[in-house]
Amino acid sequence: MILLTETQYNPPVQYFWHAFRSDSLLLEARENYIKQSYRNRCHILTAQGVQALSVPILRGGSRHKTRITEIEIDYSQKWCNVHWRTLQAAYGRAPYFEFYSDYIRAVYDRQPKFLFDLNVDLLRLYLKLLKLDKPLNFTDDYRAGYSDAVLDLRNSIHPKIYPDNLHVKPYKQVFGKHFAPELSIIDLLFTQGPASVSYLQ
Fold it and tell me: How does pLDDT run across 106-138, given as a tens digit for each residue?
């Protein structure tokens, strides 16, 4: 089975749950950018509860829809520093923060120009950290539908859509008395470390 999704910023755990059960991964590279999705945001757990981190983008003067690969990141807002300080405050005491943080910070420090490239760089890193060695490809054109050999989850892994088809197993998190599901893979990695692989399997 081929897993087809849009690119996502620090994708949620659900994405990798599906990735472990797929033969290869296919990223939509010919779609137009859609607001209020995981394309430029992720959810983490802080002392104040679940918090969204959003990557600001440059929309330009065009009123036309913009292809996802052409969306530029707005670095004038110093969002990298804000996101990193928030991650440090949320996960600095997590068991595996020191183990993974330098790898993740290195991606931020490269400051890719385009949102698509940032998301792909982060995805490749997480696949490597999870030892998930599966082919990663990109679409050549936009198609509304695919054959049964493709699990099309475009716009299905979404902040406003709860994954009722996924049995979420609680794991120990840094904050809160109740388990917070559907956070970024960062939450799982920083708290579970190498055990993240068996959790997702």
Answer: 999 999 999 999 999 999 999 999 999 999 999
Q: Any bridge partners for residue 151, and if so which?
A: 3
Between CA 41 and CA 165 the distance in angstroms is 22
Sign of CA dihedral 25, 27, 28, 29: negative
Q: Work out the number of other CB atoms within 10 angstroms of the CB of residue 117.
A: 16
Number of structural domains the chain divides into: 1
Element (H or E) spanning 18, and its range? helix 13-20
Contact 28, 154 (CB under 8 A): yes
Grouping H, G, I as helix, E, B as strand and the rest as coil, residue 57 is strand
- Give the residue numbers spanning the domain of 22: 2-200
Q: Give pLDDT tens digits for 153-187.
A: 999 999 887 665 456 789 999 998 899 988 999 99
Spatial CB neighbours of 8, under 8 Å, sequence gap ≥ 6: 15, 37, 38, 39, 42, 119, 123, 157
Closest CA to 151 of 35, 10, 11, 15: 15
- Return all residues near 58 (Cβ < 8 A) that are at least 6 apart: 71, 72, 73, 74
Q: What is the DSSP letter of 169?
A: P
